[in-house]
Amino acid sequence: MSKSLANILLLLAGAVWGMGFIAQRTAMDDIGPMAFLSLRFLVASIAVFPLAWREVKRSGRQLNLSQAHGFLWVGTAFFLSMAMQQVGLLATSITNAGFLTALYVILVPLLLFFGLREQQPKIIWPATVIALVGIFLLSGGQLALLTWGDWLIILGAFFAAAQIILTKKVAEATGLPVTMAFSQFFLCGLFGAISYWLAPVFGLGEVSVTMNIFYAALPEILYAGLFSGALAFTLQAVAQRYTSASTAAILLSSESLFAAIFAAIFLGERLGPIGYVGCGLIFAAILIVELWPSRQK
Fold first, then answer.
1. In whole angstroms, what is the distance from residue 109 CA to residue 111 CA?
2. Do residues 105 and 253 lie in contact, with contact meaning Cβ atoms separated by under 8 Å?
3. pLDDT digits (tens, 9 = 90+) for 277-292
4. What is the Cα–Cα distance from 11 to 4, expressed in whole angstroms?
5. Which 8-state DSSP code applies to residue 146?
């Protein structure tokens, strides 16, 4: 595969993820966030299972307890990030959600520096300041105007960053990246189902899923499970073998731009001028973090 084709596939994955925000939002017109999350990732795990089975058979390996623990940590971080994003969408716009979710690109080196004491490029500090200014402008110039949904998605971006760090370490330790993807999809679906059943205990307003509700949300469930989950992951896994990591990160982070474009086209979402400046600054900070180390090399 040529590098150009690989880059096109990565851009397509970003577009699929951007459209996934639309499915996540519109699904909640019919179904609760935890029910949707559970069904979405159980569908994704079913779709990826044959690939995972083939990978394990070809490797001739058997998972030990330490590797299983690694999969559990990755799946837990993945669930927390996706759950906070899904619930946060109840109280914010898709445009905000797309750009705030993409903060994981900046949070990864920050967590590596403060959590694991790994040295990071110095450009991360001005990029962080630019991103914070972008969040401030995205809020309309008043942080008090950020909704609880915005804050929840920002917190979810921290867990997404943790999941990325854990994914790299666990994938290197096990040599089973597709199996790890299957396990995190399955665990996310399982934890989502448990959260759905526990919601009434904690007084959370999760809608009881009837067959009518299930059928109403089925198109979004299938899109988010098969396309945003299984297909986009496969595109990423295949294409990243033929292009640089920095190029891949930039193209995949385009999901925030696609989310804003699709939200404007399909849902009529609009931000004020200052909000779009904020989006631009957040995206600029992401590009700086990814491009600068490659430029230095």
1. 5
2. yes
3. 888 888 888 788 777 7
4. 11
5. S
